[in-house]
Amino acid sequence: MAVAEWFAVPSLWLLTKSLFIGFIPLYFITVICNALYNVFLHPLRKYPGPTLRAAFQLPDMLSLLRGTAYKDTKALHDKYGSVVRLAPNTLSYNSSQAWKDIYGLKPDRSELDKHPAYYKRSSRNLLVVNQADHTRMRKLIAHAFSDTALLEQSPILTKYFDLLVERLKQQIDGPEKGRLNIAAWFNFTTFDIIGDMTLGEPFGALKTETILHGCGANVFSAIKFLGVIRFAETYLIVGLLLLLLQKSMPSLAKKRAAHLEYTKKMIDARLARETDRNDFMTYILRHNDERGMSYQELVGTCRVFLVAGSETTATLLSGAIFYLLQNPSCMDKLKREVREAFPTANDITMRSVTSSGRLSYMEAVLQESFRCYPPVPSTLPRITGSGGAIIDGKFVPPGTSVGVNQWSAYRSSSNFASPNTFDPGRWLPDAPGKYRGDNKAVLQPFTLGPRQCIGKGLAYFELRSILSRMMWHFEIELDTDSRGWLDNPREFALWDKPPLWVRLRHRTD
Ligand code: HEM
């Protein structure tokens, strides 16, 4: 029966109307009873936080959807301390002990599960699978990320580091005279590298100045859309409206399907190819037997590499350059260190940039950039198991969402002196006295424990190699258009970073 016919039958119309009228008060009564339970009887009722947040999920959801969760959460930590009740069933922490309790392995070798609402188990990849599958898959993949494997792959990486320098020099000599969005160029580089190392084929981003098949833009659309789905799961009525809205705008689903199809084709092509190249797939397949990874797991995990391995590293590089530009004395010190350490450009190799003690100020700059602009600023939620958990010395009941909020931890005056000042000197052995009390153990940009970033070693190779080349080859100035680059950032698990306009010149000394 068509909708118009339904409304034309008086008895059916009346029935619908009375059901609807009866439903609304019932819905509100349930919501209010639930809120009262959350505030006065819920097992988390003694944890500090605003009453509105204890009662309803909505404020936390809105904060996530608006991309302001990082600063809203920090404001709450500043007011309530190291643990805050963000939502009826959610606790946020900002201490180093909480890192260990939430993300570390327990004495019985178990771990807190990843929160199923945040990590959708519908796909199978390293990031979302359960503990048993994760242990099996991680063991296989770890070979590809060892320092030895990465050093063997240095010709692939170095090719792109050099191409970045060449392309940036062309921009200086071109019509824009060196005015460029450096954040985009870092994205092109890290995307080309991870594409080549994963799939054995160049993506050509540095050459074409585009990220193929909307991988970059799609990442954010997909992450933002995940927030909408979580919202819809919590508020059914709003959820239905959002689903209808989504149906009327199928472009996002289409783009996602195109991206999935494209990456699958690339992965299939790599699997079909015989090669003696040392890329990730070579290492993974070398150790893959009947207890190894299924085809689905391999495809899913390669997709994770493409996103996790490009956006994060490019973000940290952009943040480091921005803070150095805002602090010219730090920039000069770093430039001096690099130019003295490497008499010629050819001296900058993957091995030399990692040799210990050679670039101590660069290490300090990287740590301070991770603190001031962590690429994963928000909370990666875990859920307490059936026995609950002890976190930061206090019992947390079963089924609670828990996590450390990186932005809140790194910008808290309870962890760092002058937390909003960019000062790499705090990480040096002769740090000024005021930094002696800094809680350095709280800085965990790659998290810790069994689920910590597998690409940490690769990320450091890229960060040191690219930053060294930037300091060695160029003089950099901030363009006036980007003075307020960090004035009001938004994050959707990763930063939604605006263009970072700079002016590059050839090295002058
Ligand atoms: C500055 C750069 C990077 C940062 C800050 C970073 C941060 C992180 C964090 C916080 C996690 C934990 C995610 C979670 O628990 O949900 C993670 C996991 C992961 N990262 Fe990175 N990452 C970086 C670079 C890379 C690179 C270059 C790769 C290369 C492919 C990579 C691949 C992965 C993978 C595969 C995982 C999942 C590991 C697992 O579950 O066992 N990351 N990363």
Automatic annotation (TrEMBL):
CDD domains reported for this sequence: CYP60B-like
Pfam assignment, any one: p450
Key words, A-Z: Heme, Iron, Membrane, Metal-binding, Monooxygenase, Oxidoreductase, Transmembrane, Transmembrane helix
Gene3D superfamilies linked: Cytochrome P450
Molecular functions per Gene Ontology: heme binding; iron ion binding; monooxygenase activity; oxidoreductase activity, acting on paired donors, with incorporation or reduction of molecular oxygen
Transmembrane stretches, start-end: 20-40, 225-245
InterPro entries found in the cross-reference section: Cyt_P450, Cyt_P450_E_grp-I, Cyt_P450_sf, Cytochrome_P450_monoxygenase
Cofactor(s) the protein requires to work: heme
Residues annotated for heme binding in this entry: 453
Family membership noted in the UniProt record: Belongs to the cytochrome P450 family.
PANTHER family associated with the record: CYTOCHROME P450 (PTHR24305), CYTOCHROME P450 MONOOXYGENASE ASQL-RELATED (PTHR24305:SF210)
Protein name stated in the entry: Cytochrome P450, putative
Organism, scientific name: Talaromyces stipitatus (strain ATCC 10500 / CBS 375.48 / QM 6759 / NRRL 1006)
